[in-house]
Amino acid sequence: xxxxxxxxxxxxxxxxxxxxxxxxxxxxxxxxxxxxxxxxxxxxxxxxxxxxxxxxxxxxxxxxxxxxxxxxxxxxxxxxxxxxxxxxxxxxxxxxxxxxxxxxxxxxxxxxxxxxxxxxxxxxxxxxxxxxxxxxxxxxxxxxxxxxxxxxxxxxxxxxxxxxxxxxxxxxxxxxxxxxxxxxxxxxxxxxxxxxxxxxxxxxxxxxxxxxxxxxxxxxxxxxxxxxxxxxxxxxxxxxxxxxxxxxxxxxxxxxxxxxxxxxxxxxxxxxxxxxxxxxxxxxxxxxxxxxxxxxxxxxxxxxxxxxxxxxxxxxxxxxxxxxxxxxxxxxxxxxxxxxxxxxxxxxxxxxxxxxxxxxxxxxxxxxxxxxxxxxxxxxxxxxxxxxxxxxxxxxxxxxxxxxxxxxxxxxxxxxxxxxxxxxxxxxxxxxxxxxxxxxxxxxxxxxxxxxxxxxxxxxxxxxxxxxxxxxxxxxxxxxxxxxxxxxxxxxxxxxxxxxxxxxxxxxxxxxxxxxxxxxxxxxxxxxxxxxxxxxxxxxxxxxxxxxxxxxxxxxxxxxxxxxxxxxxxxxxxxxxxxxxxxxxxxxxxxxxxxxxxxxxxxxxxx
Length: 607
Known about the structure:
Elements: H1 2-9, H2 21-34, H3 40-46, E1 48-49, E2 52-53, H4 69-80, H5 85-91, H6 93-103, H7 114-122, E3 127-133, E4 146-154, E5 160-169, H8 176-186, E6 188-196, H9 197-207, E7 212-217, H10 221-235, E8 240-241, H11 248-256, H12 273-282, E9 286-292, H13 295-303, H14 308-320, H15 330-352, H16 358-375, E10 397-405, E11 408-416, E12 418-420, E13 432-445, E14 451-464, E15 475-483, E16 495-509, E17 512-525, E18 527-532, E19 535-542, E20 546-555, E21 565-575, E22 580-591, E23 594-606
């Protein structure tokens, strides 16, 4: 096994002779001449951003409080080849491996590093993969997805092992303002853990019904060994989790950058799981991808290729535990195969939802597998490439446009630092959804030049999951922000709003969804007030890369007023290319027998 040979090649039976202090000084000078402190790999090993450390554990950074990449390199060499050598090489095996190779230093023994040797034996790294767990809009900590590493290979006893290397924090709270404050301002305790990979599959694909995309990385033996040694370094480190600055994606990006330092090039507003996957793809690291599709989404995807009668037939077959009839024509064979696959997926879904016993599931699954082998041995399913996160649109956007409201003309400037809106291109997702963090827009009045805030959204999420007979499905939305409510008595006034709703979405055709949501919220302007806000609408996915979103809402007490209002909003968007879209929006508001119109046209750039 190559990884094992590399590991033990650096662990000779006898420790090397301790070098003289003059040797360390010479190596420090040589490292400075070579500019090793500016190397992308050194930046990745120290987890730097713009030359500044993102991990401030004094057991991880030796040069604190006067940190610099050069001082850290000098201090590392002094410890590796000084009196604390035996302990230092166990604490920093990745730094040692890279410096020893870069400077042609004398080898040091790693045989005495018990926890390192246990880690190498327990989690072999013949293969390393990026694993992306799709977005879970019901959980704030996972609303942009989750990214972790999979390490796999053969242990010394010949058994195969696969583990997940993950970084996360505790986000189990309903107090969203406190969660945002703690995770973005104060920082929360981070957990860097090693767990069996199958446990993560159970958690994400089964318990939370999230797709798992696995991207195997093309790595040479030294890169794999270096990454494994650095994982061991991180296991001994106190790491603070910051939602926007140092999250699961940030840590994984620095580990992967040990093989491709260009992963750290450029300045990012926000490091996201999808963004890291896309960077790895651009760096040429991705050898291939596979996906584990949850039973719910597997059922939904298969339904799209069948008639309603065929879907009902598959459902009845599963519930009655009968085997599908044999197909007679080529067309029937294709449809029969999809129907059989739907039955297999639905059978698994019933098990995962604990609606049937495992023995019952196994007996029927065996029957269906036998039918598949006998009738459809040469057929298989293909994954929709549009659903692959590497093909997702960019997650940041700025906008420039014109808006007419309150009888005045305005220049509109918008910024959305991360994620997407309902009007954006959501074809890479399984359903129409929206996630907006720190979304804001300013209006500049054309005549007076007066600047005012149109809205500031701290957090908004909306999911329009179509309901269907096999797996159900609920839709909902939640929002925290400052914005205008549709009303005519004080058109420029805004309020702090905390709003939620729940309901259903129905897929009337492949390109048409209709929805109905019942909800309301709490607002504050001078004093608090409660309001109800039911809404109905539809989403139309049109030809020529266009989409229409129509929504009619009723607000019982806008801004705490006694008179209710209604708003009809029509949004039409044209996707010009992968990075640009043109949005036209028209709104009409009614209140107390009066009505008013607003309109805007906006050019959006995604990057």
